[in-house]
Amino acid sequence: MFEIPKLKYTDSGNFFLLAGPCAIEGEEMAMQIAERLKDITDRLQIPLIFKGSYRKANRSRLDSFTGIGDEKALRILQKVSQAFDVPTVTDIHESDEAAMAAEYVDVLQIPAFLCRQTDLLVAAAKTGKVVNIKKGQFLSGDAMRFAVDKVRESGNDKVILTDRGNSFGYSDLVVDYRNIPEMQATGVPVVMDITHSLQQPNQSSGVTGGKPALIETIAKAAIAVGADGLFIETHPQPSIAKSDGANMLPLDQLEGLMQKLIRIRQAIR
After folding, report:
1. What is the pTM of this model?
2. How far apart are the first and last CA of the chain?
3. Which domains does the chain show, CATH number per domain?
């Protein structure tokens, strides 16, 4: 795998982990989560990339929480990186956001709904940052080779692909684990987004639901079939999180889950 600044334990044999809150709600919350994640991943020697969205652009309702302000949230991500010596990742939604976000974070993430947006992929590629492209809920794993090509042909070989389930009816998702080896065939690391694959979108309330009780199930299967990394949104109190609380993992459950997944990883290796 290509080098990511500040990424530790890359020779440990473990999967890498993108984890953090769905959205940056404030500095205190972000630092609290980052400190706990750093402690866990240091002890277990798991490569950690801290995740937090500086803005939530894809919301069902106009009154949904979207963020605390772009620059304020990006500066918090930068402070997390500096304080805990970890790389960070955040979503971008339009091509003109790429250069702005790249000043603060190490990995730019392309949301699943936007994975075919050529201008967005090219703008992310041209920053020289690592580009994590989430597979669209409407695409096969094999189809993601075209997204990878767009970034590579724009002069950037630092690409990660992330699966987050496929649409199943109007308000559910299923995980097709064939997507992991299909995307690995492109020659890039492949991540399984555990928590978003358990979303239940398009609820009548306008608030996305979820099935967090199945987080361990999805995570175990992903590691068993050879995923290179995992993406998990976590929060000390998911019930009061301002975004995607319905499918987040409580922070105090993360360490136990990681221990189980490490044992599976060791068994298949």
Report:
1. 0.94
2. 17
3. 16-268 (3.20.20.70)
